[in-house]
Design a protein that fits this description.
This protein is mostly beta strands and 507 residues long. The chain has helices at 163-168, 474-482, 486-502, and strands spanning 26-29, 32-37, 45-50, 54-62, 67-78, 84-94, 97-109, 119-129, 134-142, 150-156. Among the domains are: 26-168, Jelly Rolls, CATH 2.60.120; 429-502, no CATH class.
Length: 507
């Protein structure tokens, strides 16, 4: 069946025009304009069908004599549903000058008071004309529908049939329209009970139209709701929770996205902390404002002390650190006292020592009243009966002193010589060649230390003992050299050396 059909406006005077001195009637205007009768064989009538939002038409004749005429007319039609308008004017053109008289005007109005959804006006118009004048009617109308149709029927005089039925003669099997929708049954896509027909031109009659203002055939998400009437045309589930947000964009499916008490951007229904901004940033199920351990799960608490493990100084100790010494009770050596105080650094806190510092002056862990050496932390390390602080020879027994010189044998360089090494030449006095000199200094290498050698620079000591008091003297050297030579003095020198070597230091 045709989807775009003529809806015709009608204009019908009730007087016959027989004998009226006029020429044939002519019609002009926008769209398709048809003269149904020029008045020569039947009542003058015209129809128009404009595809658009506005139009202007005229239906006129020419006077053949000076005359005054009263012409009854009927004007019926359809100018859409929204912001519909219609106007009728009587016009006379005399000597090229057109004069108009407004006969009727209505609109703009919306559905469904006339002229919206169809109109029908009947009245009379009086014309006083002279021979040669053109006169008749001018019609116009408009609307703002998406269905761009302007249709009308204008007729003069009465034929005994309604103007609607006249539209369908010759086209309609029964000669009648279905209702008052201005469409003949043979051409009506929505025959029967649909007055508005298919106002959105989507091929679906309005009575069956899911979306009266859109094309029912366009349904992008295949949810049965045409896109033009679908709040979520790209979302087949639309807005399942009815919060005005399409499911594909819904931040809180099943809850109202608009309800956000703390204005944190999380809808209350999905906000673990609907009354506290910031929510639960560590996602441990505890709101930030009351979170014991921000950034960590509050629910993990191995010792069940009410403090989350990640914020518990002693996560495995129910009572934590009761004496606040930085050591958990389960590891605390001295509960109730600071483990960090350990003056003697023996690993036992002072307050739990058997001998606290005030009864252990040397901090050796032995109470003063039981300590052989209360002021000596090492006590008597060589077990010689002498405290280390008083020990003359550490590591040796102080009581061993063979020469009774007050120096224990273990630390005495000359353990059997009470004089020891009085001249500090490294030779004990008992073995010292030259007690007052350095036995190691012997320039002439004659075995006699320089200090005790009368001739420290003369290996043979060649001069006589009485002559060699100062062998460094030039005169003495001369004497030695002129007194008969070394062989003359040899017996005396040998005797002197023998006597010197037999000397022993006193003691």
């Amino acid at each position: 069946m045709l989807r775009s059909l003529l809806l015709l406006g009608l204009f019908t005077p009730s007087l016959a025009l027989a004998g009226v001195p006029v020429d044939g009637w002519r019609a002009e205007g926008s769209g398709t304009v048809v003269v149904q009768s020029d008045g020569s064989g039947s009542d003058p009538s015209m129809t128009y069908n404009e595809v658009g939002s506005s139009g202007d038409w005229s239906f006129t004749t020419r006077a053949l004599a000076d005359v005054t005429l009263t012409l009854p007319y009927t004007y019926e039609g359809f100018h859409g549903m929204f912001q519909a308008t219609v106007s009728t004017y009587a016009i006379v053109i005399h000597d090229g000058v057109q004069t108009e008289t407004l006969l009727q005007a209505a609109g703009p109005v919306d559905c469904c008071a006339a002229p919206s959804n169809g109109f029908s006006y009947s009245d009379t118009a009086v014309f006083t004309v002279q021979a040669g004048d053109t006169f008749g009617f001018r019609l116009d109308g408009s609307h703002f529908d998406t269905d761009n149709r302007l249709q009308g029927w204008f007729t003069i005089a009465d034929t005994g049939l309604s103007s609607l039925d006249r539209l369908c003669i010759g086209d309609d099997a029964n000669g009648h329209t279905d209702t008052t929708d201005r469409f003949c049954d043979d051409l009506d896509a929505c025959a029967g009970s649909d007055l508005i027909n298919d106002i959105d031109s989507d091929g679906v009659c309005n009575v069956d139209d899911i979306c009266p203002d859109g094309n029912d055939a366009i349904d992008s998400d295949d949810d049965g709701i045409p896109d033009a009437c679908d709040e979520c045309p790209e979302d087949p589930s639309d807005d399942a929770d009815g919060d005005g947000v399409c499911d594909c964009d819904d931040r809180c499916p099943g809850g109202d996205d608009q309800a956000d008490t703390d204005s944190d951007g999380i809808p209350d229904a999905c906000d673990p902390c609907p009354d506290m901004a910031g929510g639960d940033s560590d996602e441990d199920g505890v709101c930030d404002l009351v979170d014991q351990c921000p950034g960590f799960p509050d629910g993990i608490d191995r010792d069940s002390d009410g403090v989350a493990d990640d914020c518990d100084v002693c996560p495995d100790d129910l009572f934590d650190d009761t004496d606040d010494d930085g050591v958990c009770d389960s590891d605390d050596q001295c509960i109730g006292f600071p483990d960090t105080l350990d003056i003697n650094d023996d690993g036992v806190p002072d307050d739990c020592e058997d001998c606290p510092p005030e009864n252990d002056r040397d901090l050796d862990g032995v109470c003063d009243d039981a300590d052989r050496c209360p002021d000596d932390p090492q006590d008597d390390s060589d077990n010689d009966g002498v405290c280390d602080s008083d020990d003359a020879c550490q590591g040796m027994r102080d009581s061993n002193d063979a020469d009774n010189d007050g120096i224990p044998d273990g630390c005495d360089l000359c353990p059997t010589d009470p004089d020891n090494d009085s001249d500090t030449d490294g030779v004990c006095a008992a073995d010292d060649i030259c007690p007052d000199g350095d036995d190691t200094a012997d320039r002439d290498q004659d075995g006699t230390p320089d200090t005790c050698d009368p001739c420290p620079d003369d290996l043979a000591d060649r001069c006589l003992a009485t002559q060699c008091i100062d062998c460094e003297s030039t005169d003495v050297r001369r004497q030695c050299s002129t007194s008969g030579g070394p062989w003359t003095a040899l017996p005396g020198v040998m005797l002197l050396l023998a006597l010197r070597r037999r000397r022993r230091p006193p003691g």
